[in-house]
Write a structure and sequence with these properties.
329 residues, alpha/beta, Rossmann fold, DNA polymerase, domain 1, 16 helices, 12% strand, disordered N terminus, binds S-adenosylmethionine
Length: 329
């Protein structure tokens, strides 16, 4: 039998990554001993460790991360801790994109789960990783793939997309107001030579935006880098799949909690959750319902939960975080 020592388990959390909206997400999932839970974004394991606290000894945790290093690091944490080791097969770590949630649960012969959570985006550990090329603080190869098995890299996007395609990516995924001129700058620079390193891209962006923007509060390359990362990892497409397949995988009264970090992600979650919670769509003038449509889930959070000022002060990554939760009917 495993001794329950919250403090000891919490000590295992990543020393670098600070989980965002932590209590709100954990409480929002209504976990109890015996719950079967999917953590779709294991990362440093902060949320997963707390989930284990709540659902063990009889529960089951299935944790996904497309980054093999996050999975390996968590496996090591388990191996190094006698109490976690005792959970054995009740902790299942999967090095896959969460878009595979349906297939993976079927393979595991798990018919339904009590809760699913996703804490989207990247961890602080990944941001600190020079090889990934997602931070503009280092001079790294333009890669940005969280899953190294993917074909598309940031280098291929930057050197292969047309000016129109680049503008669309920067505008839609980065909300970048200088999308057009940055895209033009990229296309002009690559006529001279292929763009391969993050610092080269940064200097192109620097030369494509006005001085005021260069001296702004947020680094002028932030939005371009975010947009390229989203494109390379198909982040919005896989999110739509997670909402659809995740909701299907939930048991009755099961909960799906998603933390987003930018407006594009939040818009998708908000709209899909609203769709899932909609019943009859007949025109109001019809005396009786003809469509027969029933809601699949109910909104637990009518408005997104956002971090307190204190949390943002302590963890700037929380700045744009939003948490939304639904419950399967
Ligand atoms: C913000 S971190 C999660 C942090 C974690 N909740 C914690 O408390 O330590 C996001 C993690 O999710 C992973 N990730 C992002 N999108 C994913 C996807 N589509 N499928 C699987 N893992 C994904 C990233 O590789 C990263 O490790």
């Amino acid at each position: 039998m495993i001794k329950n020592s919250k403090l000891e388990i919490r000590n295992l959390m990543s020393s670098i990554h600070k989980s965002v909206l932590f209590e709100e997400t954990i409480e929002g999932m209504k976990l109890k001993n015996g719950s079967i839970v999917v953590d779709a974004t294991l990362g440093g394991g902060g949320h997963s460790l707390e989930i284990l606290e709540r659902i063990m000894p009889d529960g089951k945790l299935i944790a996904f991360d497309q980054d093999g290093r996050a999975v390996e690091a968590f496996r090591k944490k388990i191996d190094a801790d006698a109490r976690l080791r005792e959970y054995g097969e009740k902790i299942i770590l999967i090095n896959e994109n969460f878009e595979k949630i349906k297939e993976c649960l079927e393979d595991l012969e798990i018919a339904g789960v009590d809760a699913i959570m996703a804490d989207l985006g990247i961890s602080s550990d990944q941001l600190e990783d020079e090889d990934l090329g997602i931070s503009f603080r280092f001079d790294s190869p333009l890669d940005m793939r969280l899953d190294r098995k993917r074909e598309l890299t940031a280098e291929k996007v930057v050197n292969g997309y047309s000016e129109e395609e680049l503008t669309k990516v920067l505008r839609e995924f980065g909300d970048e107001k200088y999308a057009k001129s940055i895209a033009r700058g990229i296309c002009k620079a690559r006529e001279e030579k292929r763009i391969t390193k993050t610092k080269e891209l940064i200097s192109i962006i620097e030369g494509s935006v006005p001085g005021m923007y260069r001296r702004g509060k947020i680094h002028f390359a932030t939005k371009t880098f975010q947009a390229l990362r989203i494109e390379v990892n198909s982040e919005l497409e896989v999110l739509k799949k997670l909402v659809a397949d995740g909701t299907e995988a939930l048991l009755k009264k099961g909960r799906l909690a998603i933390i987003t970090f930018h407006s594009g992600e939040d818009r998708i979650v908000k709209n899909l959750f609203r769709e899932l919670s909609r019943g009859c769509v007949c025109p109001p003038e019809l005396p009786i319902c003809r469509c027969g449509r029933e809601p699949i889930a109910k909104l637990v959070t009518r408005k997104a939960i956002v971090p307190t000022e204190k949390e943002v002060e302590e963890n700037p990554r929380a700045r744009s975080a939003k948490l939304r939760i639904i419950e399967k009917i």
